[in-house]
Amino acid sequence: MKVLPLFVLSSLLLVGCGSGGSSSSSSSGTDNSGNPVSLPEDGQNIGTNPGDDNNVGGGNDNNSGDDQGNTDPDPAPGPGETFAEQMLFAVNQARAEEQNCGGQIMPAVPALTWDLDLQDAAYGHSVDMANYNFMSHTGSNGSSPQDRIEATGYSWSTWAENVAAGQKDINAVMASWMNSPGHCKNIMNGNVTEMGAAFAENPDAQYGIYWTQVFAKPR
């Protein structure tokens, strides 16, 4: 397997074929995933094998979740030019409205702010998954989301993580997460106040592109 030497956060949204999945985990004391599970058909793209939480393709962790080389930009999902601005806008747009997360109605909650430490935690995990061709909340070195957050120096009182793989852009990965109860609840978690997110690409890995969102509230 080819290991890419460098992954870069990009202001471009990725296009290309490939299906994907997602998974979530949080600091509630239970890991709601750990391993990837299948996503609904309408949350997938066409091309690679999908997965979400209990199989291959994605993960979501709560503790209080394919591009094949084509990097042409898709239209941005909202205001802003950078990846961080666009992802934050997409998340806050969802949080601004009541959402049905797998039958549980989640009320609108306040907007989040972007945190660079949480971005670093997300980026490191996306790179790890892309380089080592896996999808899980457990890193290749055995790290948990909590470990990765604390390694940045962030002092948390609650956290949550969503991961996903294979979705071509922010719109696609957000649709997958919002269509999956655990991920949706992490995005709509009123106990978190900050977030960071990142993706990393490796065309030689199974899903091509790997996504991580990290949510938290500082202590």
How would you characterize this protein structure?
There is one protein chain. By secondary structure, this protein is α+β, with helices and mostly antiparallel strands. It has a domain at 113-218: CAP (Pathogenesis-related Protein p14a, 3-Layer(aba) Sandwich), CATH 3.40.33. Helices cover 24% and strands 21% of the residues. The chain has five helices and nine strands. It has helices spanning 83-95, 116-132, 145-151, 170-178, 181-187, and strands spanning 21-22, 25-26, 58-63, 99-101, 104-106, 113-114, 156-165, 194-201, 209-218. The strands form two sheets. Strands 1, 2, 3, 6, 7, 8 and 9 form a seven-stranded mixed beta sheet that branches. Strand 8 and strand 9 (209-218) form a beta hairpin. Helix 2 crosses helix 3. The protein starts with 20 loop residues before the first strand and ends with a strand. 56% of the residues are buried.
Give a short summary of the structure.
The chain is an alpha+beta fold. It has helices at residues 83-95, 116-132, 145-151, 170-178, 181-187; strands spanning 21-22, 25-26, 58-63, 99-101, 104-106, 113-114, 156-165, 194-201, 209-218. It has a domain at 113-218: Pathogenesis-related Protein p14a (3-Layer(aba) Sandwich), CATH 3.40.33.
